[in-house]
Amino acid sequence: MKPFDFDELTIRRGTASLKWDTTDDPEVIPLWVADMDFRTAPAVTLALAERVASGIFGYVDIPQDYYRALSSWFLRKHGWHINKDHVIPTTGVVPAVSAIIKAFTKPGDGVILQTPAYNCFFSSIRNNGCRLIDNPLLIKELENGFSYDMDFVNLEVLASDPRNKVLILCNPHNPTGRVWTREELTKVRDICNANNVKVISDEIHCELVHPGFEYTPFAYIDPTAVVCCSPSKAFNTAGLQIANIVASQPDDRYAINRAINDNEVCDVNPFGVTGLIAAYDKGDGWLSSLKEYLEENRKFLHEIISENLPTWKICDSESTYLAWIDISASGLEGDEMEEYLLKKAKVRISSGSDYGDFRFIRINYACPRQRLLTAMHRIIEALKEML
Ligand SMILES: Cc1ncc(COP(=O)(O)O)c(C=O)c1O
How high is the pLDDT of residue 2? Predict the structure, then answer.
């Protein structure tokens, strides 16, 4: 018997799930928001159950064990030494990014984003009264597909404009799945440092790198950068709302703490703390099995698309459980495809417009294979009807 059962057809409808319960039709299979249909690591569930059994859920003082678990995981897994004094725990990477933008900018300043990009970056920039400065990623044709590169020439031009104060780096990158190499990260550092542009590196997807690729913490390349991380994507604990900002510079930490306190979003909850410690201390074996399962799902999705949907071109992803698919040859834009598939196939996918490119869709394949198969069969049948 396998130690972890990722084939289990977990039932999430009726559990106050954003992914499942925001669509009324009970037949819809949701393959949109980045949240997996698997139970988390048993060690996390057990630790949370013990915490629940205490029956006391008052305000939290983050224990030393939390910082130890965090540092020891990153050192063990990625060779990155995190100094506990540099860590600011927060309720999520999105609130973290937003607070850091607030700390490093004034309304009207430019924030450079390399699109397509995770949707909440757009709103974080807007909500802080900043201007989005787009440095679109460049599509790179490969022998059997395509991927993306950063446009360093344009980045240099944008960074040299003194009104542009911050760059949001997504490392690894959602939605393209790029795992930036050391050379690429070094160029980002050199360009940004030379122009006094602060880098915020969102590393929430760092554990979900595909075989053959290696995540490089941006703090390796630039120890002065501000990094955000969380166990939530890898361990499927987004609802526990815990994340960390790592900022080595005292002035940066002061400004970020100020912004977090201005927004009064400084308190984390006891389950987030317990969940993080258990995941980082005891979740290793589960995570390895999860990654094997996801890799099979990825291959399966590629096969089924290449055999049945010749107008869909999948980006050659290096990380995450999100497939980024060019559907421009199908004659539909992302929003239209999303609407059509929801209606005809009863499958909810994400439109690329959410990430800044209407020619694409995004599919979350982190679900039991049987569910993925059913969803893909429905999509194939619905698209046949369109012909
Ligand atoms: C790049 C990226 N950053 C942040 C988040 C969300 O972070 P949190 O739930 O910790 O606010 C996501 C969720 O998909 C993401 O893809």
Answer: 67
